Amino acid sequence: MSPWAGLLSTTARVSLLLLLGSVLFSCSSLGQRVPEFALTKIEESDIKDDSGKELGTEDDADPEDLEVFYPTDQWQTLRPGQAVPAGSHIRLNLQTGEREAKLPDRENGESGTREEKGRKRLGKVDLDANSFTSEELKKALAKIKESEKAERKAREEEVRKKFRPIEQLKEEFEKLNMKIETDYEIMVKLISKFNSSASTLDEKVAALYDLEYYVHQVDNAKDFLSMGGLQLVIEGLNSSEASLKEHAAFVLGAALSRFWTENQEKGKRGRASNPKVQIEAIEGGALQKLLVILATEQPLAVRKKALFALSSMLRHFPYAQQQFLKLGGLQVLRSLFRQKGMEPLHVRVVTLLYDLIMEKMLLEDSQHGEQMEEKIQQYQQVRLVPAVVEQGWCALVPNLLAMPEHDTREKVLKLVGVLVAFCREHYRGDPALGTTLSLLRSEYEELAAEEQREGDKDGYFRELLGSINTIIQELR
Hints:
By secondary structure, the protein is mainly alpha-helical. It has helices at 3-33, 114-122, 134-162, 166-176, 183-195, 201-215, 218-226, 229-236, 242-256, 275-283, 286-295, 300-314, 318-326, 329-335, 343-365, 370-380, 384-390, 393-396, 406-419, 424-428, 431-453, 460-475, and strands at 40-44, 67-68, 76-77, 82-83, 89-93, 98-102, 257-259, 271-273.
């Protein structure tokens, strides 16, 4: 064989190898480009129907029985029966014949699925597809339900500790055998206990103490009168036991008076007379018994309650005032000023005299009607002020101005202001009274100025200063 033939044979072989390499390279390139031209179908799982509701998946299986598919940013093959989260992109790969899914493309760094946005709102959540299985999710839901049940049970237990069940309350009420009694029934029992010879001294005192609470009401006082309780209490004033006399006088004073109902809208409260009980009490001899208690040696507490009952009987009852003067009531009250230990009663006596004098003066200045004329005639028979002047009260009352209490001075100044028209000559001739009034005026000028500096232009001390200036002016 010639050398050229060998060379040709070698060249042919190289060319053949190059041709085969080119074919293989072309096939390889073609194989890489085939998937690029594969038919792809993009589906949106959150497509809505005409009614606005989201369309369901192909399978109608229970969501709890489906295996959860966790999409990522890359296409993943879907296995049969897997549940795809709403909003995921789905396609059919015609080259492999399998369905694939992935998360929608992100825009502005945000995930396109509602689930991922929800996870972001809930905080840091692991998005790894292998983090949770369906069984783990079921267990987590069971734990949440268990926690809610325990919390609800704890709340119910807390409520049970604060409030007792209605069944328990009913049982307790039945055990107590409670019965709502009227005031009338209660007063009947209390009077029976007070009048019973089997009751001890403490039980009788307790009965009187409870009676006082009920009889200060007008209707109860009338019932108390009709059931004979008033006469029993009046007889109790003769008891040898000081505690019984004290509480009997207290009940009598409460029954003789009543709480004011008028002017309640102005915030004023006080006591007024109960005429029907007043008449029955004076006819039953209560006035004489009260004066005996005040005139004889008795403990301060007993005399204090007796003076309260006497004041309740005399106010707005001119007939009782007339009988009071006839029985020497003013002398009895004046004797309290000569006894040691009776100082707390002095201001009460002064207040009583001021009230009795003022109610007559106010009645005479009021408009006269037929009924009022009759009452004025009754008061005209009560000569209280002349008796006060005759029995030395003009000199007795001003002496109380030396007491340090402002409240006592206020009440004394009121009575002196009323008496100044009848005791003018006596007061003008009393240098001690003039000195006392001058000292009081200086004291209250300073106190009134201090009130004014504090912003109280019409204060308590300014009112007292006005009373002092009025008396001084009257004596000039």
